[in-house]
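To fix ideas, we now present one chain and its tokenised fold:
***
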Amino acid sequence: MTAKSLSLIKTKAESVVFIFAFSLALALAAQAKIPLIFSPVPLTLQTFVVYLAVKILKKKAVFSVILYLAAGVLGLPVFAGNSLGISYLAGPTGGYILGFLVTCLVIPFVFANFKTFAKNLISFLSAAAIIYSFGLIWLVSIYKLTLQAALVAGLYPFVIGEAIKITSAAFLTRKTSNVEHRTQNIERRT
């Protein structure tokens, strides 16, 4: 085997490991939930994981979400509160989870090379807009809530926490972008 083919195998293996890691992180973030008495949607850290996944895995982030969904549908306790099966996806959080998938399909294409804090902030705000739009549409269409009731139950309680997650993810990924840039420069020189 040539050095180039060994490098390609190593890169593919690293991608698979990261896909599994982010899928596991989504499952763990779902377990760190805070139920809200005024909303059927719990507070979790999953959107934070999605932001990191789309920045670090880029176009491969969608595979982490697909793996997470497949594990839950197959009966593994990966959904919030260790809930199982496809019936969980029909619940009040189904739209948000669908939003995770759409986010992973859209954001890496629209925001492919953002490396600064401000640009990462914009990409994560866009990701949040996608996720919450799908969540609210779900609450309105499936649960027949009015738009105002959906906003009260599915958006307003999460704004401050989401702002913290978006800012933290933008700061953390700015640091990873700097590392990626240095690594690419080193690889070019060798």
Remarks:
- Helices lie at 3-31, 46-56, 61-73, 86-89, 94-110, 117-141, 147-154, 159-189.
- The chain has one domain: 3-189.
- Residues 3-189 form a domain with the Arp2/3 complex 21 kDa subunit ARPC3 fold (CATH 1.10.1760.20).
- The mean pLDDT is 87.
